[in-house]
Design a protein that fits this description.
The complex is a heterodimer.
Chain A (H helix, E strand, L loop, with lengths): L5 E10 L3 H12 L4 E5 L27 H11 L10 H17 L12 E4 L5 E4 L8 H8 L3 E6 L7 H8 L7 E5 L11 H7 L3 H15 L4 E5 L7 H12 L2 E5 L6 H16 L3 E4 L5 E5 L2 E8 L2 E12 L10 E2 L4 E2 L7 E2 L24 E2 L19 E3 L9 H4 L2 H24 L1
Parallel strand pairs in A: 1-2, 1-12, 2-9, 5-6, 5-7, 7-8, 12-17
Antiparallel strand pairs in A: 3-4, 10-11, 11-12, 13-14, 15-16
Helix pairs in contact in A: 1-11, 3-11, 7-8
Chain B lengths: L11 E6 L3 H12 L4 E4 L15 E2 L10 H17 L4 E2 L3 E6 L4 H14 L4 E3 L1 H7 L7 E7 L2 E3 L1 H16 L2 E3 L2 E9 L2 E9 L5 E11 L5 H7 L7 E11 L7 E4 L8 E5 L2 E5 L3 E3 L9 H14 L8 E12 L14 E4 L9 E6 L5 H16 L25 H9 L6 E3 L4 E2 H9 L10 H6 L13 H11 L7 H15 L7 H17 L10
Parallel strand pairs in B: 1-2, 1-12, 2-9, 5-14, 12-20
Antiparallel strand pairs in B: 3-8, 4-8, 5-7, 6-7, 10-11, 11-12, 13-16, 13-17, 13-18, 14-15, 15-16, 19-20, 21-22
Classes of the chains: A alpha/beta, B alpha+beta.
The structure holds flavin-adenine dinucleotide (FAD) (2 copies).
The site of one flavin-adenine dinucleotide has 38 residues of chain B, from helix 1, strand 10, strand 13 and strand 18.
Chain lengths: ~425, ~525
């Protein structure tokens, strides 16, 4: 049934629809590279919306305020960390270009600058990050200024407790109040952030919620609430809610699946195809091979087999959660091309004894090796193929969880990989 | 150290040290004789072997070749407990199966050995065995049925404590550790303890002192200057699968060895065990090699065990009575020993150790007989005839109980906190309410011990966060303590996950860590954010 197979011929195939894959597609689009993108739901839907760059240095006792200085120090300490292999200028350009794209498509971000932001978490702890969605920006500012503020949570919404938030941050935010209200028209039982966010796209829900917030505000000038302010136009929903309440509002991320993550995914899924990128969502590439003509990717969906022919490929398949790496009982493997994986000697060495050990677990530093052009290395220690590049947290020698650098590694390495792809393609043409 | 009487600990008749099945069993046995006691544990109920065993109510068949005396005891207790505490038991029945490679001689003698020990044992056709348990290997060549069953030690311990409170006003204090004894005139006068949560030192005065410290019994006896308790330590490692793989208890029909018993535990199965001599009781954790060995051995009997998803592995230490000789650990007696310490010059102290979960009642009875006699109480023990009350508030440890009650109550407003095991807000509230011993110090860990919360696929990663939030919502936590408890709970659960983190479990752990550490910052709580 050969005629059933759909075939796409592109310049670049990006494998993976996480932060790195989407970022690569954005950078490729901005460089007029004809791109196809495919992948399953990745970690994106779990993210807070915060874009981290570098938040905690290895084993240190306090968080990073100036990520650029921390990067300089990291450069001295490690030659292998992916962020060390990218110039500061490229990292700045990558963040600026990526954040601008998000802003143009409805999710404005704070401008990536010189210093980290002290962002809020649903438990009332703080987290160093680099760039935050505009809907969350007022929170860290209100904390810094200790403005009179009320944190509001909702009957039936799990994973976000205003009292917990206040109990934990209370020390540094005197007078912070916790309030619980009912979400407009919600029944008894559990309610979900996604449902609340979609319902706030409607003016009538906004009006009812605004009335409830005003009543709950008391003396507060600012209100913090879980991230539920709309799905597709959060900036607009925030502006409307502020107008209706006459108060400053900010969002705090919730436990996954969180609205900010879903927003990002839906933004990419709409914006990229709209601008000519071929997106094959919810699919995994089953096989990838290279020959003289280029790369061939095979996958299939409900309608049958699909083949993508590309001149270059970016592998952005993530780690264990997304399937980019597989932890087999005997060893860690890269399943698509069986690339060699740098890893601890044996399973007994994957994890430390204590789960929350600040030094992190050795398994997280496992990953694939690349050369300076972000091309994965094969078994012989040389580039697996000149046309294959890699980006994101599949790369070895980083622990994005402990160092609070997930988005940073994804965005910056995607930027570098696309730079190299552009070079490869122009060489091919020339 | 305080010598003053502590208001929280008025003088009691008996102080029992160790909140396992034995200690709680003694508490109840004494209460039935009208004797009031205080029970302490340095952690919480079932912190030792009682909370980390196979959950097998032995028929005794396992021991017919190595220890026929214990085998007979097991069978007698098995029948008693099925009658008197049915709420704690799932009467699954047991199979013994031999597969190609196992010694045919042993298989041949088995029925005769069982008969001699008084254990009903019926040979069944291989085909019938595989119909009963489709997961069994096709290399089976012999199969027997025996009256093995599955037992819930958590519920046993909780109900023992609750019944004792109701009968005699006996009190259980968790997190109280014994540090030493005051001795004079051939008697212990007081026990010096520390409350491990507050760090407070206190003295408990009693007329009789009972050491039910399980594997720690030798250390505790030495605190009283007694060196007549001599134990060897054998570490055993078990695995918990995500699904229930067999309906029956399935034993390998061969002399006891690694990975040859699979016991159902509600919605999961437990595979084990290994047996390794250790010198140290602390820092006992499963190793990758032990895990792999259990799986390899178990898969010979049930091939699906090779590719099963495991959610947990844990290790505990069996105290083996040192009787001299050079017998192999598994061949050492599984019997128990009661020491009256008279030879050590003490007339009001005894130690009971060894034995099995299956025989805990009998162990408790023999210790209680001695204690009662020493107190001049001549009422006979009645635990062999008085049923253990089925206690409404202890039901949360039973798999499937929480979802059943939630569905029956039909209250959508009673939101679910633990989604794997369907533990709702009202269930947690009831647990908090009915554990007076925990008081202000109720923690996520204490709730998990008293319910199924944290025991499902997510191993507490997600419900831990939700229960923590709920305890903030109800005003139980008012400061950063809740997050510290959450971290400690997750650190504790992780010990049981560390050695089985591959495949889906590794992926799930990565997500959990991204949340707990990457987002909430539980890896840097005391540091400057
Ligand atoms: C709970 C959570 C919270 C987070 N919070 C933050 C935060 O606050 N700030 C921050 O900066 N970062 C955060 N992150 C990290 C961040 O979202 C990304 O995980 C990280 O940046 C890595 O992105 P990635 O694209 O390399 O990998 P992933 O996001 O894991 O994406 C990999 C993609 O590859 C796909 N894939 C795998 N195999 C195949 C195949 N064979 N064919 C096709 N596709 C395949 C997957 O389906 C997936 O789409 C968080 C992550 C999690 C899990
Ligand atoms: C791996 C394994 C599997 C097993 N499987 C089975 C089985 O399937 N069926 C069966 O019948 N039996 C089984 N057993 C045996 C059974 O678990 C034990 O015999 C039984 O649980 C012992 O109970 P206990 O109360 O005597 O001791 P424990 O349960 O160990 O209790 C001792 C208590 O003392 C406390 N303690 C220690 N030191 C102090 C101190 N200084 N101050 C205060 N408190 C202290 C501890 O915290 C602990 O809670 C198994 C044992 C092991 C190790």
């Amino acid at each position: 049934m050969k005629e059933d197979r759909r075939q796409f011929t592109v310049q670049l195939a990006v494998i993976g629809t996480g932060m790195a894959g989407f970022a690569a597609a954005v950078f490729a689009l901005n460089r007029n590279i004809v791109t196809a993108l495919t992948g399953n739901t990745g970690a994106l839907a779990y993210t807070t919306g915060y874009l981290d760059l570098l938040g905690w240095p290895d084993g240190a006792a306090s968080s990073i305020k100036d990520p650029w200085q921390a990067l300089d120090e990291l450069r001295k300490a490690s030659a292998h960390h992916p962020l060390v292999r990218i110039s500061a200028d490229d990292i700045r350009r990558a963040f600026a270009e990526f954040a601008a794209f998000l802003g143009e498509h409805g999710i404005a971000y704070t401008v990536p600058g010189e210093r980290n932001v002290t962002a809020l978490t649903p438990a009332g702890t703080v987290k160093p990050t680099f760039c935050v969605p505009a809907t969350m920006a007022a929170g860290p500012k209100a904390l810094a200024a200790k403005r009179p503020c009320a944190i509001v949570d909702f009957e039936g919404l799990m994973g976000f407790s205003a009292r917990e938030f206040v109990a934990n941050i209370g020390d540094r935010w005197p007078g912070l109040a916790a309030r619980r209200i009912s979400f407009p028209d919600a029944g008894r039982g559990e309610i979900y952030p996604e449902v609340m966010a979609r319902s706030l796209e409607l003016a009538v829900t906004r009006e009812k919620l605004a009335a409830a917030l005003k009543a709950a505000a008391g003396d507060a000038e600012v209100i913090g609430l879980p991230a539920i302010l709309g799905m597709h136009r959060p900036d607009h929903v925030l502006a409307e809610m502020q107008r209706l309440t006459g108060l400053d509002l900010f969002e705090i991320p919730t436990m996954p699946p969180s609205v900010p993550g879903v927003r990002l995914r839906e933004l990419f899924e709409q914006a990229l195809p709209g601008r000519g990128v071929t997106l094959i969502p919810q699919r995994k590439v089953a096989a990838l091979r290279f020959d003289e003509a280029g790369a061939t990717l095979d996958l299939s969906d409900n309608f049958g087999p699909i083949r993508i022919l590309a001149q270059a490929v970016i592998l952005a398949t993530g780690r264990f959660l997304s399937g980019g790496l597989e932890a087999r009982p005997a060893a860690i493997r890269e399943p698509l091309l069986d690339l060699p994986v740098t890893q601890p000697a044996g399973r007994g060495d994957w994890y430390r004894e204590r789960y929350t050990d600040a030094r992190g677990h050795p398994i997280h530093r496992a990953g694939i090796e690349t050369d300076a052009a972000f091309r994965p290395l094969g078994r012989d220690g040389r580039a697996y193929d000149d046309r294959l590049h890699a980006a994101g947290v599949i790369l070895a020698h980083q622990d994005w969880i402990r160092s609070r650098s997930g988005a940073g590694i994804a965005i910056a390495s995607a930027y570098r990989a696309v730079q190299e792809v552009e070079r490869t393609l122009s060489r091919g043409r020339g | 150290m305080t010598s003053a009487q502590d208001a929280a600990f008025p003088e009691t008749e008996v102080l029992i040290i160790g909140g396992g099945v034995t200690g709680t069993g003694i508490m109840r046995d004494l209460a039935l004789r009208g004797i009031r006691s205080i029970l302490i544990d340095r952690h919480d109920l079932c912190a030792g072997a009682s909370g980390g065993n196979h959950g097998l109510l032995h028929s005794g068949a396992r021991y017919v070749s190595t220890d026929p005396h214990s085998a007979r005891e097991c069978m007698e207790e098995n029948e008693l407990l099925k009658r008197l505490a049915p709420q704690c038991i799932e009467d699954t029945g047991g199979l013994f199966v031999a597969v190609a490679g196992d010694a045919p001689d042993f298989a041949g003698q088995f029925a005769g050995l069982c008969e001699r020990a008084g254990i009903p044992c019926e040979e069944i056709a291989v085909g019938q065995a595989r119909r009963l348990e489709p997961a069994l290997s096709d290399k089976l060549f012999k199969a027997y049925r025996v009256p093995d069953a599955a037992i819930d030690p958590f519920r046993l311990a909780l109900e023992n404590v609750n019944h004792s409170r109701a009968l005699a006003g006996s009190v259980y204090h968790p997190h109280v550790e014994i540090l030493g004894f005051d001795m004079a005139g051939g008697e212990i006068r007081a026990a010096h303890c520390r409350d491990n949560r507050s760090g407070r030192l206190l003295a408990i005065h009693a007329r009789q002192f009972v050491n039910a410290g399980g594997a720690w019994a030798m250390n505790i006896a030495r605190l009283a200057g007694c060196d007549d308790v001599r134990l060897l330590y054998s570490k055993g490692t078990l695995l918990v699968s995500n699904d229930r793989i067999a309906r029956h208890v399935v034993n390998r029909l061969r002399p006891p060895d690694d990975g040859d018993i699979l016991v159902p535990g509600g919605t999961v199965s437990l595979l084990g065990t290994t047996s390794t001599r250790v010198d140290d009781l602390d820092n006992i954790g499963p190793t990758a090699a032990e895990v792999d060995r259990n799986i390899r051995e178990g898969a010979a009997m049930i091939p699906a065990l090779a590719g099963a998803r495991y959610i947990r592995a844990f290790s505990r230490v069996r105290p083996l009575l040192q009787g001299g000789g050079t017998a192999e650990d598994r061949a050492v007696s599984r019997g128990f020993a009661l020491s009256d310490h008279l030879s050590q010059g003490l007339a009001n102290f005894c130690t009971i150790t060894g034995g099995k979960l299956t025989t805990f009642r009998r162990m408790a009875e023999s210790a209680s007989d001695l204690v009662a006699r020493r107190l001049g109480n001549h009422r006979p023990g009645t635990t062999a005839s008085v049923p253990l009350p089925d206690d409404e508030t202890s039901r949360w440890t039973e798999p499937g109980a929480a979802p059943r009650r939630w569905v029956r109550a039909g209250d959508a407003g009673d939101t679910i906190l633990c989604e794997c095991e369907m533990v709702s807000r009202s269930a947690v509230n009831q647990i908090v309410e009915h554990a007076p011993e925990i008081g202000e110090e109720m923690s996520i860990e204490a709730i998990a011990m008293r319910s199924r919360a944290g025991k499902g696929t997510c191993q507490g990663s997600f419900c831990g966060i939700r229960i923590c939030s709920h305890l903030y919502d109800t005003g139980h936590y008012r400061d950063a303590t809740g997050l510290a408890h959450l971290r400690d709970f997750l650190d504790e659960r992780f010990k049981g996950q560390r050695s089985i983190l591959w495949g889906q479990q590794a992926a799930q752990m990565e997500l959990a860590e991204a949340l707990h550490c990457g987002l909430l910052g539980l890896d840097s709580l005391e540091q400057d954010g």
